[in-house]
Amino acid sequence: MSLRWGILGTGNIATTFANGLKQSPLNSLVAIGSRSDASAQAFGQAFGVTKAACYGTYDALLADPNVDIVYIATPHPQHCELAIKTAKAKKHMLVEKPMAMNEREVQLILDAAKENDVFLMEAYMYRCHPQTQKAAEMIKQGVVGEVKLVKASFSFEGYSLGPSSRLWRNELGGGALMDIGGYPLSWARLIAGAAQGSSPLHPTILKGVGNVQKDTQVDEWAMASLGFENKIGAQLFVGVFADADCSVEVVGTKGTLRVPNLWRPDLAVLGPTQIEVSEHGKAAAITPIVLEQTNLFTFEAEAVAKAVLSGKKECDFMTWEDSLSQVRSMDQWRKEIGLVYSADKQ
Ligand SMILES: NC(=O)C1=CN([C@@H]2O[C@H](COP(=O)(O)OP(=O)(O)OC[C@H]3O[C@@H](n4cnc5c(N)ncnc54)[C@H](OP(=O)(O)O)[C@@H]3O)[C@@H](O)[C@H]2O)C=CC1
Ligand SMILES: O=C1OC[C@@H](O)[C@H](O)[C@H]1O
Q1: Quick check: CB of 228 below 6 Å from ligand 2?
Q2: Do 127-296+327-345 and 3-118 fall under one CATH topology?
Q3: Domain residue limits, the chain
Q4: ipTM surpasses 0.85
Q5: Is residue 172 within 6 Å of ligand 1 at its C-beta?
Q6: How far is the CA of 6 from the centre of ligand 2 (A)?
Q7: What are the C-alpha distances in Å from 130 to residues 207, 333, 336?
Q8: Which residues pair with 212 in a beta bridge?
Q9: For the GFO/IDH/MocA-like oxidoreductase domain, which residue ranges apply (predicted)?
Q10: CATH code of the domain made up of 127-296+327-345
Q11: Rounded to two decimals, what is the model's pTM?
């Protein structure tokens, strides 16, 4: 039995995810929903969706009885309303990151998923990749000794997208922190937990700085320093002004573990898929991650399908508790740098 997907939104990540679905025997794309008929038809044609299941409204897709699960791939401010509607339509859902704009919205989504007994996951796709699981396992086994510090960066050049891009518009949830801050944050939390053999931890302290621009009212870069109950610290950096550092490191008493390409291991141009461990002062030993299937979004879709088809409402790679911890930390990080959206005023 395969899971029948409908996608809401026909932008960048919707296309990437639809390609990932194509390679997954457990999944199939059966419907596409857009704000416009023309976009729905064009997208549907590219991915072999029947004309009748290319919908010019999101509501029409949610009313389609052939859709088991919905992938919400719109800008973040639309996630909350669409996720609640999806749950009420009794459909499972994979919601793009960040799950919603703030804790109040995430809580509403969790309540709706619980009430309607549907599967829900926030789409931190890198968490579903074998490289991430291997790195966390190595930390748990003590390859760097006692973990002291997690360093994680994510940056890309976003100016070329132009000022109309969601990245630069406050009303579309723009800025570096909301777009990519959740990646280093979710990695630091995962590793702080892995170090003690537990699920991801919530930070006990989070201090941040950032550059919220006067004209756009979104941040061009943001940094955070975190502390966890087990005395692990983390330094996070995100920026959307240049293709700068994207690597992650875990520093321990014995040595350092480094992953050069954690976020998009499917894109070889961003670096090799490998884990590098060096004892302090020595050359790194490299563990290559060799895989038959390399599409990151196929891993994500398969993780979701396995959970849904076995009756689970959550996926172990990104649980509901994990998403709550994420948004609480993101809210705190935003408060530290003075980054405000209209959702915060409701
Ligand atoms: N996991 C990952 O690797 C990635 C995740 N993302 C996440 O996915 C979501 C979408 O990002 P991305 O695909 O880059 O965004 P895009 O701007 O490329 O696409 C968003 C789509 O959402 C729909 N939409 C609904 N309301 C609006 C609106 N008011 N303005 C613009 N578009 C709207 C549009 O589709 P239509 O007109 O058909 O309705 C549009 O094409 C974000 O939450 C982002 O954080 C993004 C990139 C990578
Ligand atoms: O999640 C993401 O990862 C890659 C970025 O290019 C994109 O803007 C972001 O939404």
Answers
A1: no
A2: no
A3: 3-118, 127-296+327-345
A4: yes
A5: yes
A6: 21
A7: 31, 29, 34
A8: 219
A9: 133-258
A10: 3.30.360.10
A11: 0.98
Domain 3-118 has CATH 3.40.50.620: no
Is the per-residue pLDDT at 346 higher than 90? no
Task: Name the band, by pLDDT with cuts 50, 70 and 90, for residue 1.
Answer: confident
- Give the type of residue at 242: A
Ligand 1 neighbourhood includes 9 CB (under 6 angstroms): yes
Q: Which amino acid is at 98?
A: P
Q: What's the pLDDT tens digit per position in 226-264? A: 999 999 999 999 999 999 989 899 999 999 999 999 999
Distance in Å, CA 143 to ligand 1 centroid: 39
